[in-house]
Structure to design on (123 residues):
């Protein structure tokens, strides 16, 4: 698997939002959805606020492939379900999005959203 360059990590980390277009079963891209992205170490993560039952999460599970755009970076990625969900990742979300109301940020660190955490791995 590929890794992120330092420049890509910096640009994506600085972006407030990430546009993610998952790959349909016929290989075409779905319409992009806007997601909050966070960097933790040298990894990037997104969460489905609506949990594992959301169409976004189920679409990601179906193909595990997507295309992202954030901070001027366009990249094909793999969407990997992860066990890297911990309080440090929640703290990274809270720190990055602290200017938003706690109720908004709270939805990203809720148990439901935590269960739908995906790691973005460059292809």
């Amino acid at each position: 698997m590929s890794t992120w360059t330092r420049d890509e990590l910096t640009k994506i980390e600085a972006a407030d939002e990430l546009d993610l277009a998952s790959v349909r079963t016929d290989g075409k891209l779905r319409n992009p959805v806007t997601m909050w992205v966070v960097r933790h170490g040298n990894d990037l993560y997104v969460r489905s606020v609506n949990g594992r039952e959301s169409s976004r999460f189920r679409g990601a599970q179906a193909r595990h492939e997507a295309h992202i755009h954030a901070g001027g970076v366009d990249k094909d990625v793999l969407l990997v379900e992860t066990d890297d969900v911990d309080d440090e990742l929640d703290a990274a979300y809270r720190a990055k999005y602290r200017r938003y109301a706690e109720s908004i940020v709270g939805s990203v660190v809720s148990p439901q959203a935590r269960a739908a955490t995906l790691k973005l791995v460059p292809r």
